[in-house]
Each structure stands twice: as C-alpha cells, then as structure tokens.
C-alpha cells in the first residue's frame, strides 16, 4: 500500500487528511497516532473541557464518521517508530510497515518536564492531552489547593478555571512577571491584576526547587517558601517532537526544518505544526510556533504541495487565550514594535493595543474585541496614524484604504 502517511493524529494531521480529500486526492491516506483518540482540539483542554463545560464529543475536530466516509484509515494507539526515507516506509509499534508516496510528520510537541526532588510524586500533572485532563479533573474540587507552576498562557487559563470552580489557586512564576516570554510588561501587568482581582495568588521571581509529600504531593517548595498543594499543574513550555525525523536523517534544528512549502530536507517528506521550524517570508525570519492556526495552515499547504500545487506558507502568526470571560486575541509579535498605542480602556476589559515600528503596525493584542481583531489582523504591515488608532471613535476600516 502506498499513498499518504501522516504521523501524529493532532490538529495538523486531521486538517491535512481533510484537505487532501477536498482536493480530490483518491489515493490511500493513513493517520498514525499514539493517542487513543481521533484528532481533537487541544485549546479547550485548559478552558471549557477542563471546566467540564465541553464534552469529549465536542472537542473532536471532526466526527469519527468523517474519516470513515472519506476512506481515511486511522491507526490509533500506535506509534511510528522509524522512517526509512530511502525505502519510503514507516515502521509502527504494531510491527506493521507502511509504504508512502508522501509522508507528513505532524508529531506536535510534548510538555517540558521538571526533574527535581519529588517531581514524580502523584498529584503532579502536565496538560497536553485529553487523557491528562481526565486524569486530573477529580482533583479540581472546591477548596482544594491548586498550585500552578508557570505563569504562561496555559498556566493562567488553568488558574482561571480553578478559581471559577472554587479552588485556592497559587501561580508560581520564576521570571519577574507572568507572560514574560510572550507579551509586554503592560499586558503582563493587566493579567496580573485581573487574576489577583479574582483571588489568584501570583508569586513572581519564585522558582520551584522541589516537591514534598507522603505518597502524594502535599507541598511545593521554592527555596525557603512552602506552598500547600493538593494538586499541582506544571505548564513550563513544550519540546518539539523531532526525534523520529532526526533519526531518519531529516534536518532538524529547533524543530524539523522545512522550507516555505512545508517540505523537509527529504523531498517526499513534509512537516506541519508545532514540530516545525519554518521560514516566514512576511517577517523574514524562521519560527517555531505553538498555535492552532499555524498547524492548520501548514497542513493545508503540505497537502496542496503533495498534490503538486507549489503553495507557499506565509501568514502573520496569530493566537488566542481565554481567561474568565475575557478573550485575548493576538496577531504578530509585540516585541517587534518600538511604540504602542492603546485603543479603549483597559479597566473596561475591552480594548486593543497596537504595536508599531517605523510607522507600520507590526502587531496587536485585542481583549474582548473580536470584530476589531479582524481589522487588526488586516492592519499588520500597514502604516497607521497613532492618533487615529488610539481614538475608539475612529473607523479602523478607513485605515485599511
Ligand atoms: C492545553 C493547551 C491549550 C492550548 N491553547 C491554545 C490556544 O488557545 N490557541 C492556540 O492557537 N493554540 C493553543 N494550544 C496549542 C495548540 O493546541 C497546538 O499548537 C496544536 O495542537 C499543534 O498541532 P499539531 O498537529 O502540530 O500537534 P498536536 O495537536 O500536538 O498533535 C501531535 C500528535 O502526534 C502524536 N505523536 C507524536 N509522536 C508520534 C509518533 N511517533 N507516532 C504517532 N503519534 C505521534 C502526539 O502524541 C499527538 O497526539 C494549546 C495547547 C495546549 C496543550
């Protein structure tokens, strides 16, 4: 059997298979995934699914029948163990070997783990899969002490859910401010205040040195500080799953290196999603992104190029985060700006911040302003008068002309 083999059954995999069939590809398509689930959305795992508001069937990207109806073979609970690029085959943990004409590697990423005293105690969790959430939800009960290690987006989303469910929540962040790696001091301060206002205890410049407990975690140790814990959730970043590609001799360097067509160093092997290091022609640099839009777009481009279309992946990165009733949407990298303009009032929890460089909009953050965000996305790369951007009465659409 040949055709297209897709390794990893996540966002990129599900989209690539769908795009191939949409483009009328009628060869074999096989998705190999080491989880037990058909492709599902990860964002709800730290939001509505964690809170118990969204059921598993609503988390799946597409229903089971979608794949069956389109003759897309799913090999779940199955790990791809080796790729032979010369023979164009993939070895599986089941002992089976699949042949391919084209291969897509969409192995995603895995949580970075702590390896310190007590870090393997029961009650310490990471959050990447549906099974991870199912395994920790029982501990999310009112009045439990939840300690979150890492004040990034995932940690803060979990903190919000924790408070909404009535837990005592502490967030431990080793940097001087939460979200330090991903946003400006102003946005960090905004989210810090928001969470403290909802009862989250945030401790910055606080590095975890160990965990203590008898048979299960009971405390998180940070030097001479000790935080009581019934449940710990660690969100300290991810590591791209590149080992399989590397072992096959495919060029990797902070991700699987692909060109603007999502092609790896092997012309028959593509890669998409969190695992890639890809060029962004609009930003004129290489990126490794951890976002759904990136995974989906790269999957579409990979599928088109497998069919001989020569499509290029060129998009300004965007991302979102839901905390409490607030939806934050971001486009571009705020760190690229040399000045910023606030539109609206932060205290009202509905505003946008534009980041400019040399008179051009390079990025924007929008809170509870989804309509404006659509225009923010279009404004990136365009010149804009800061006074007009700052005036909530001005029409952003007019700036696009
Ligand atoms: C809790 C959480 C919240 C998030 N929230 C947001 C958000 O709000 N907005 C946003 O844009 N992004 C968010 N993300 C990031 C987003 O989910 C990822 O960027 C996206 O899932 C990447 O898709 P992917 O297809 O590259 O990888 P994944 O969805 O991770 O899929 C990769 C799959 O491949 C499997 N795999 C790996 N190696 C093998 C192998 N050898 N054989 C078989 N299978 C293998 C993995 O187990 C996994 O199932 C969030 C992520 C998490 C974990």
What would your notes on this structure say?
This protein has 401 residues and is α/β, with parallel strands linked by helices. The protein has three domains: 176 residues, FAD/NAD(P)-binding domain; 122 residues, FAD/NAD(P)-binding domain (3-Layer(bba) Sandwich), CATH 3.50.50.60; 75 residues, Enolase-like, domain 1. 24% of the residues lie in helices and 28% in strands. It is built from twelve helices and 26 strands. The strands form seven sheets. Strands 3-2-1-7-19 form a five-stranded parallel β-sheet. A five-stranded parallel β-sheet has the order 9-16-10-11-12. Strands 22-23-26-25-24 form a five-stranded antiparallel β-sheet. Strand 4 and strand 5 form a beta hairpin. The longest helix has 15 residues. The mean pLDDT is 97. The structure holds flavin-adenine dinucleotide.
Please summarize the sheet with the most strands.
5 strands, parallel
The proportion of residues forming helix, as a percent range, comes to: 10-25%
Small ligands present: flavin-adenine dinucleotide
CATH class of the largest domain: Alpha Beta
Q: Strand content of the residues, in percent?
A: 25-35%
**CATH architecture type of the largest domain:** 3-Layer(bba) Sandwich
Contiguous uncertain segments of 5+ residues: none
Global shape: globular
Topology:
Blueprint: E1 4-7, H1 11-22, E2 29-32, H2 48-51, H3 56-59, H4 64-69, E3 72-75, E4 80-84, E5 89-92, E6 97-99, E7 102-105, E8 109-111, E9 124-126, H5 130-136, E10 145-149, H6 153-164, E11 168-172, H7 185-197, E12 201-203, E13 210-212, E14 219-222, E15 225-228, E16 231-234, E17 238-240, H8 243-247, E18 256-257, E19 269-271, E20 276-280, E21 285-287, H9 292-306, E22 318-323, E23 326-332, E24 339-345, E25 350-357, E26 360-367, H10 370-379, H11 386-390, H12 396-399
Helix pairs in contact: 1-9
The chain binds flavin-adenine dinucleotide (FAD).
Flavin-adenine dinucleotide (FAD) is lined by residues 7-13, 32-35, 42-43, 45-46, 79-80, 106-109, 127-128, 154, 241, 244, 273-274, 290-293, 295, 319-321.
């Amino acid at each position: 059997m040949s055709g297209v083999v897709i390794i990893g059954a996540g966002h990129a995999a599900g989209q690539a298979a769908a795009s191939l069939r949409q483009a009328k590809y009628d060869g074999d398509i096989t998705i190999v995934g080491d989880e037990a689930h058909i492709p599902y959305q990860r964002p709800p795992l730290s939001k509505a699914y964690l809170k118990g508001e969204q059921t598993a069937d609503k988390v799946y990207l597409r229903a089971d029948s979608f794949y069956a109806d389109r003759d897309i073979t799913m090999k779940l609970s199955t790990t791809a163990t080796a790729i032979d690029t010369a023979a164009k085959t993939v070895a599986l943990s089941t002992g089976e070997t699949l042949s391919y004409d084209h291969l897509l590697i969409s192995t995603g990423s895995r949580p970075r783990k702590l390896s310190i005293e007590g870090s393997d105690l029961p009650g310490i969790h990471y959050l990447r899969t549906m099974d991870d959430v199912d395994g920790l939800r029982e501990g999310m009960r009112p009045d439990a002490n939840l300690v979150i290690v890492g004040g990034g987006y995932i940690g803060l989303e979990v903190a919000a859910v924790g408070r909404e469910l009535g837990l005592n929540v502490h967030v431990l962040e080793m940097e001087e401010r939460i979200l330090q790696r991903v946003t400006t001091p102003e946005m960090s301060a905004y989210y810090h205040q928001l969470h403290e206002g909802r009862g989250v205890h945030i401790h910055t410049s606080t590095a975890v040195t160990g965990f203590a407990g008898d048979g299960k975690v009971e405390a998180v140790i940070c030097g001479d500080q000790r935080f009581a814990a019934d449940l710990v959730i660690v969100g300290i970043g991810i590591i791209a799953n590149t080992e399989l590609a590397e072992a096959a001799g495919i060029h990797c360097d902070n991700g699987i290196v692909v060109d603007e067509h999502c092609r790896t160093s092997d012309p028959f092997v593509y890669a998409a999603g969190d695992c890639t290091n890809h060029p962004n022609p609009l930003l004129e640099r290489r990126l490794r992104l951890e976002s759904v839009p990136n995974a989906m777009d790269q999957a579409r481009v990979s599928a088109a190029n497998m069919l001989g279309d020569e499509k290029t992946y060129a998009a300004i990165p965007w991302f979102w985060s839901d905390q409490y009733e607030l939806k934050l949407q971001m486009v571009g990298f705020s760190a690229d700006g040399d000045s910023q303009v606030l539109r609206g009032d932060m205290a009202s929890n509905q505003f946008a911040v534009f980041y400019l460089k040399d008179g051009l909009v390079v990025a924007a953050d929008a809170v509870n302003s989804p309509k404006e965000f659509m225009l923010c996305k279009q404004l990136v790369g365009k010149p804009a008068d800061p006074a007009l951007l700052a005036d909530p009465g001005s029409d952003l659409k007019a700036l696009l002309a």
